[in-house]
Automatic annotation (TrEMBL), chains A, B:
The lineage of its organism: Eukaryota, Metazoa, Ecdysozoa, Nematoda, Chromadorea. It comes from Caenorhabditis elegans. CDD domains: eukary_SO_Moco (cd02111). PROSITE patterns: CYTOCHROME_B5_1, CYTOCHROME_B5_2. SMART domains: Cyt-b5 (SM01117). Its cofactor is Mo-molybdopterin; heme b. Keywords: Heme, Iron, Metal-binding, Mitochondrion, Molybdenum, Oxidoreductase. The gene is suox-1. This is sulfite oxidase. It is an enzyme of class 1 (oxidoreductase).
Amino acid sequence: MLGRGTSFNRFFRHRRQFNKLSGATSEHQRTNENHSYYKYAYIGGAATAGVLGFKHFVKTAKLDHAKDETMSEKKLENLQIYKQEEVKKHGKDADRIWVTYKDGVYDVTDFIAMHPGGDKILLAAGAAVDPFWALYSQHKTKEVLEILEGYRIGKLDVKDVPKPVADAFSNDPERHPALLVRNSKPFNAETPPSLLTDHFYTPNELFFVRNHLPVPDIKTENHRLTVETIKGKTVDLSVEELKKKYKSYTIGSVIQCAGNRRADMNQYKKVQGLMWEGTAISNAEWTGVRLRDLLADAGIDVFDDKIKHVHFEGADVDPTGTPYGASIPIEKARGDEVIVAYHMNGVDIPRDHGAPLRVIVPGNVGARQVKWLRKIIVSEKESDSHWQQKDYRAFSPAVNIGDELKWNTVPSIQEYPVQCAICSPAPNTKVDRGDETVDISGYAWSGGGRGIIRIEVSVDGGETWNSVEMEQEEKQDQEHMYAWTLFKAEVKIPPGVKEFNIIAKAVDRAYNTQPETASGIWNVRGLIHNAWHRVPIIVKD
Amino acid sequence: MLGRGTSFNRFFRHRRQFNKLSGATSEHQRTNENHSYYKYAYIGGAATAGVLGFKHFVKTAKLDHAKDETMSEKKLENLQIYKQEEVKKHGKDADRIWVTYKDGVYDVTDFIAMHPGGDKILLAAGAAVDPFWALYSQHKTKEVLEILEGYRIGKLDVKDVPKPVADAFSNDPERHPALLVRNSKPFNAETPPSLLTDHFYTPNELFFVRNHLPVPDIKTENHRLTVETIKGKTVDLSVEELKKKYKSYTIGSVIQCAGNRRADMNQYKKVQGLMWEGTAISNAEWTGVRLRDLLADAGIDVFDDKIKHVHFEGADVDPTGTPYGASIPIEKARGDEVIVAYHMNGVDIPRDHGAPLRVIVPGNVGARQVKWLRKIIVSEKESDSHWQQKDYRAFSPAVNIGDELKWNTVPSIQEYPVQCAICSPAPNTKVDRGDETVDISGYAWSGGGRGIIRIEVSVDGGETWNSVEMEQEEKQDQEHMYAWTLFKAEVKIPPGVKEFNIIAKAVDRAYNTQPETASGIWNVRGLIHNAWHRVPIIVKD
């Protein structure tokens, strides 16, 4: 029942039975029958001081491997030559797992537990990683190639070296040149911070983009949406039929990537993932039909005890044909606010944002709001998708880069906590003291429909604060606020300083607040960074 | 529309129109039609450095008054004598408001805006405060009497001096001697921290007590519960009838006072209110009937757009006959979890906890879980009760003691944010280095049914953390966790230190976390303190 890390005793020593400690009285025995100790496993990790980053990870991986006396230092010309059929024997069920990349052969057995993408690496077991890396171009960095070289065992026979993989992204749509591209294949780009707060509803062309795979090119008239139950496919609709058959609803709702502000968390201590700054978030008005109307039409009783989750499947697929997928709890799915959308800010959803259909789950993280939606499935379990099970879960700060990631010990991110960031001015902006003030603008938002009740700004490190005026959606009240809150203010330059930080933070309807720094929320994947946002400003006299 | 404080320009200077700043493009105009700027008023308060406390408040009140050249310094024998009928002319609608206390006559006009209890003070306008102070004994301190003396204008004619008020609390129930009494009349006491985590369900006699008024002495067989709609009283039941008529439900649910851990916030900077330490929180199993079943029986459609709130009225009344009251939003009221309870941990609810009936609103603050429940009212508006409108709202840190409290600029507290505290060891416990470890125990809980997903402990100021094992209710899942989470662990004493802090903090299902210190959450009334809990430990070599 206890998944206790080996390092447990370095912190908690001579541990006695918890039951013994708390079971001292008969009162306790009487009332404690219906709950369990240790309902959640211990999430491992030693008390590790200092800053561990990707470089440390690289070093550890290589050193560990060197200890195993493999051949990372051998010269390439001396390497053994392997045939593809030999590599194939080292598939996912073999004792030792091999992969190839270009003409290299690698034994990655000892690396699997450390792979940031989890056991997805096994999809290439006994074969080439090239088609996967063509889709996940984050692998194509010097550091990753160095890690891989550490596991090199040989060279692939020249006749078996795979041809360069065709660019799966060549049919991606054109994008607005203003977008700040963090990764081009798959395309991931954020809105320029200087433009984000100009619009209460982010224009479609400036809406941040978070793609996991190449963008499907779907002809709307050919697209079908199906709803599946245990009895089989019970609804099968074209987009036109969906629009005609169900009542339409429009809702203002934010989409935020769980990695938003990762670069900021990375400043505190290195994390893994795409280095999003603070604008992997946008707000749009979405129009579509209620998910619960579709479910009802499929003969699904949304109050049936056996239905716990609703799965969504996109038309974007990886090289094995596996689609992007995610799920949400049934209680959320049957709410007023969850829709299958076909319009974004009043026009057809653009390709990058899920054309022709996307599920909108207001108040939840972006990863559950599946684009290019083609299938809805009800289930007793969460989605088995990689992105539900092996990603988008925020570990404890006790889990460090290089530690084994026990994904089932942390829940999938659904509702987002309270977030707030300054978009303008940019960090290290120089201001003239003679101007006396600095114009600032930014956004705040919280999950679960919890409206922002105030936003406060400090220029003295958080010793004193001032509330600022807020812009909110009139149609949404504090208990159902899925759109964001924008703020603008003029902040007085403090006297007698050469530089200062502007800090902003927000409070939501349940009086949730943000932590001061990343100290308590740092996590290996750099998810959900919502510490106070600090923008350093330089004052010129 | 803007309730802008006069101190606004001290921070934000030369403010331009917000609309001008953000209305730069036609895109903005197209999409921004349906929301309003300034939906919430600016919450005033200057950027004030340093620590302001109650003493500062006393001093300010007296000095301001001295400037008005009234007679705070005159000798008592020289004071003018007033008849009661003269005092009566200075009632709540007069230009100058007078009150009497014992034989003193006071012009409190200039104090009303500063009264921590809001305009409740007007209930005594033109008359004696004595019967009110008999109920709110927090007034009977040297500091409050000093403030009052600052407003003295004369002496009451000896024939009009009221007789000492009978003790309204003389019929309060007996209490367990272990309770830590913070105020005796009305009775407010917390559970000894060393006992709190011994029981997953707090024994009734150790459950913390937060009373606002004397405890009603209700004979269960005489008690009636009524449900009122716009059409009048539509349900009128005895406790026996209620038990027979509706299905019973049992739920484990925490009650926490919004002032829990106020003493801790007070260490950061002085606040007003009862100095609760960290155990104004307890957990019990409550049995009763669903509120929505009662509402349905009263012919109320809980999905009717006109019904926004459900009000509760207790049998505890102030000297004017006004009962304790509160309300919750209809969406909460119609949930599975809200019950009218008659049992607490399997036995009749004790007098201090609401005998014979109490509403249990799992996931919300204690103040809404009205005891001695006698009336339920549905309404378009929140309760007008003092405790809904002029208390239990947490202001911005920008609002200081002595500032006017604009209650309508902040929402009433309903759902609680994530909370966590160490109960044992006590602060400044001395430990022997030879013991190597310290046993710790504590609790965590969050509002809205958001389960605790982990609890982490640090002994190095938050640089590194370790997850600890948790005890939770087996019947409740992470999306519906209304009972608390207990934790116990053995923490290793860090080498080479003479003292250290044990810090504990929790993460809830929506990945909400706690702030590091009170810096961003400090509020004048000391409500909802949920910063990291720190317990200093002294190491003996």
